[in-house]
Amino acid sequence: MYVSRSQFLILVLTATALTALAAKAEGQVLKGCLRPEFESAARVGDLDGSRPLDLDLGLPLPDPAGLQAFVATLYDPQSKNYHRYLDPQSFAARFGPSPQDYQALENFVRAQGLTVRATHSSRLLLEVRGRADRIEQVFHVTLGRRLRPDGSQFFAPDQDPSVDLTLPGLSVSGLDNFARRQRRSLRHPGPAQGGTRAQTGRAPRAGTGDDSDGAYQGQDFRDAYVPGVSLQGSGQNIGLVEFGGFYSQDISTYAATSNPPLPVTVVGTVLVDGFDGNPMDNGDGSASTGGPEGDCSEVSLDIELAMSMAPQAHIITYEAPFSASMSEVLAPIADDPVCNQISCSWGGGDMGSNAAALLLQLASQGQAFFNATGDVGAYGSGDVAGGVPGPDDLSPYITEVGGTNLNTGASTSPPISYASESTWNDYSGTCSGIVTGCGSCEGGVSGGGICDGSDGSNILDIPSYQEGISMSTNGGSTTRRNIPDVSAMAENYWVVYCDLCPAVVGQEGAGQQAAPFDGTSAATPLWAAFLALVNEQAASVGKAPLGFANPALYAVAKGSGYTADFHSIEDNSNNDVVSDSNTSCDSIYYTAVAGYNLATGWGSPKGAALIQALVGTIASPTISPTFSDSPTPTATWTASPSYTATPTFSDSPTPTPTFTASPSFTATPTFSDSPTPTPSFTASPSFTDSPTASPTPLYLSSGLGKCILAPNPARGGEAVTLYLNAQPSGTHWRVYTLAGRRIDELSIEGSGPHRFSTQGLSAGVYFAQITVNFSSGYTQSMVLKFAVIP
Fold first, then answer.
1. How many CA atoms lie within 13 Å of 349's alpha carbon, on the beta-carbon side?
2. Does the CA dihedral 452-453-458-459 come out positive or negative?
3. Residue 634's pLDDT is what?
4. Higher confidence at residue 613 or residue 34?
5. Looking at residue 237, what is its pLDDT?
6. Residue 327 C-beta-side C-alpha neighbours within 13 Å
7. Distance CA 437, CA 136 (A)
8. What are 456-509's pLDDT values in tens digits?
9. Using an 8 Å Cβ cutoff, are 75 and 396 in contact?
10. Spatial distance between the Cα atoms of 225 and 228, rounded to a whole number of angstroms
């Protein structure tokens, strides 16, 4: 058949158009959303199309190798970049995805009828929400309900998703809820059967009414790890990653019943991913079924351990529902880097596609991230605990914390004294129970292992800080990341938790509880709080915060002063899981040998010696490393003491010599909800209890929105005025008590003055979360503290 030139061109063009249409219909395929477990799980039906789903859409780092190389210079004492950390805006400008790509992604989402829940200054993550049926259409998937081996249901896609948008490296998470969140704490075993497991801990204190069964509490942790150290964590913020809420009464009870009593700790909360902060709400509309030792116990113990080690530090809980990804919690921590040290005592769940990039961002901003290694023994292929779990397998920019059994002197009155430590290992139960749980199982075993890709976990190459360590006797790898890095007490510690829970009235165990617990959940906030002491010391001598801790920790440990700075744990204890029948459940385990090992890492801190060694590695900064002007703050503050910086960060164009201790409104542990605040509370060094403010108030260092409230304190009924050094177009105020109860809300349009009346407020200390819309189009959220006096 003869085909003319014009007919041939028509055929070619038609074929080209059909190919383009087919490509558009298929869209960009997003890999990594299917797991082998999905295919083997029985499908029992389709997901309800009306169910709302939350997704994370991620854009990749344009130059991850370049960012890693830059971060390496931040922690190299020989580099001109040493400890010259980035702020979030600098990070986004230098290393984040382009504004054009991020805007294109946001435009696409809105055009598809999905809701944008949150944006982030790094442009790495876009959080969206939509009905399941709409999400199936947008991502060209069918979401089915399937059964886990235990009979519970989960949803997952039947095929790889695709999207009609071309953005190289685009990723999505949240299309399944297979992985389940796990807290890394357990009930401590009761008295050993047959005398094979002795109770560990300190002796009960004579004449104190001590009923803690020898469990460690309060001052015990400072006695053991920082004896004689006067540092309290003043001016420091400790961030806690949490998937649940807590009851403030539990924290105050813990403080009051410690011996000696702890000062009142101010705890702020950032609610993430729409979480309501209810300790008995899993965030999916159902009440917690965790019982009296349910998930709220995890949040309480994290706070209680952190406040025990650093009683004057501010603690900020970043609270998300169980369904939230790790990325959704890390993003607001990175957006507004007020915490130089962050602790995470949770494993499992959805990590989110950009969690590793966000951890790298934290390191670039001088923020240390500590993670609990878990409670089910060593990791390894075929091992009872399986491969390295998340978030341990995410990134080398994590300080992994293992657990120990702390042995102290037998004194029945404080202070106790450090005697020795061994690998935490007190599991009581069956081999299957260590993973699946069982009614009679208690205790656990410290996690540790190698990120070698076994059982589907990520492969992490050995980081530079672990190179050069002899692995000939400890079973470690010379090519892969080894876990843990350090360790601390994880056995027999006292926890006060779950006031008025469980939610079912009259159910056995309802009401406030107190009991001994185990778990690396405790060791991790202890180390984060220890770093708060280090950073307090650094700030007092005008030096930068330590930032990501591993380069300095390993540099000290590899040096000649190792045994002077760390408690080396080398008693040949191990993290082998042994059942009650004396059967080894593990195919692999590691032994605590001299030096670095995969049971306890480098060991635990030797107080003053390690603080001094680490501060000695810190150079004075020449630029401000941490304060941010996040243009899209997303977290809801519900009583935060956290708007602080270390004394070395000033960003103010007119710093004064008197404004060096802290540029923040910080509440020391001497402040509470008392209606009569002490006269020593001041909003800044330039303010006193005088009801009249300086006519030229100092501006706080908070980026573009440098601001201050004055007068501060205010007489009851008097208005406080927000002073800004940039032109506002409006402000939105939310005012909270220290306990986190919102008591007022106010919107003010126009350039000002922006004033809030204290009429009706009783004498006391309050937080104001103020969102400022500037005339330039910029938006910033700030948290300021003010006092009202009679």
1. 23
2. positive
3. 33
4. 613
5. 96
6. 28
7. 35
8. 567 899 999 999 999 999 999 999 999 999 999 999 999 998 765 655 455 555
9. no
10. 10
503 contacts 525 by C-beta, under 8 angstroms: no
* Residues 6+ away with beta carbon under 8 Å from 779: 631, 632, 633, 771, 772, 773
pLDDT category of residue 627 using cuts at 50, 70 and 90: very low
Would you give the DSSP letter of residue 299?
H
Backbone angles phi, psi at 24, to 5 degrees: -65, -40
**What is the pLDDT averaged over residues 31-48?**
88
- Token look-up 């297979």 returns 178
User: Is residue 686 within 8 Å of 658, Cβ to Cβ?
Assistant: yes
Asked whether 482 and 470 are in contact (CB, 8 A), the reply is: no
Q: For the residues of 585-637, what is the DSSP string, one character each?
A: --S---B--SSSBTTTBT-EE-HHHHHHHHHTTPPPPSS--S----SS--PEE
Quick check: bond before 97 cis, omega within 30? Answer: no
* pLDDT band per the 50, 70, 90 thresholds, residue 759: confident
Enter the pTM of the model: 0.75
Phi then psi for residue 420, to 5 deg, are -165, 170
pLDDT at 785 over 70: yes
104 burial (CB, 10 Å; 0-12 / 13-18 / 19+) is middle
Q: What is the Cα–Cα distance from 82 to 77, expressed in whole angstroms? A: 6
pLDDT in tens, 50-90: 999 999 999 999 999 999 999 999 999 999 999 999 999 99
Q: Which residue has the higher pLDDT, 533 or 646?
A: 533
| Tokens of residue 282, six digits | 């899993």
CB under 8 Å to 630, separation ≥6 — which residues?
88, 89, 120, 121, 335, 336, 780, 781
DSSP letter (8 states) at residue 132: H
Q: Taking the CB of residue 180, how many other CB atoms lie within 10 A of it?
A: 13
Contacts of 459 (CB under 8 A, 6+ apart): 451, 452, 453, 480
Beta bridge partners of residue 347, listed in sequence order: 182
**Residue burial 196-209, b: 16+ Cβ < 10 Å; e: rest:** ebebbbbeebeeee
User: What average pLDDT does the structure give for the chain?
Assistant: 80
pLDDT confidence tier of residue 630, bands split at 50, 70 and 90: very low
Which tokens in the block code for residue 459? 């492969």
Residue 133 pLDDT class (50, 70, 90 cuts): very high
Pairing label, strands 445-450, 376-378: parallel
> CB of 236 within 8 A of CB of 340?
yes
**Sign of the four-CA dihedral 644, 648, 652, 655:** positive
CB-CB contact of 266 with 641 (8 Å): yes
What length does the chain have? 790
Q: Which residues contact 398 (CB under 8 A, 6 or more apart)?
A: 359, 369, 370, 371, 391, 392
> CA nearest 612: which of 575, 565, 569, 650?
565
Neighbours of 570 (CB within 10 A): 17
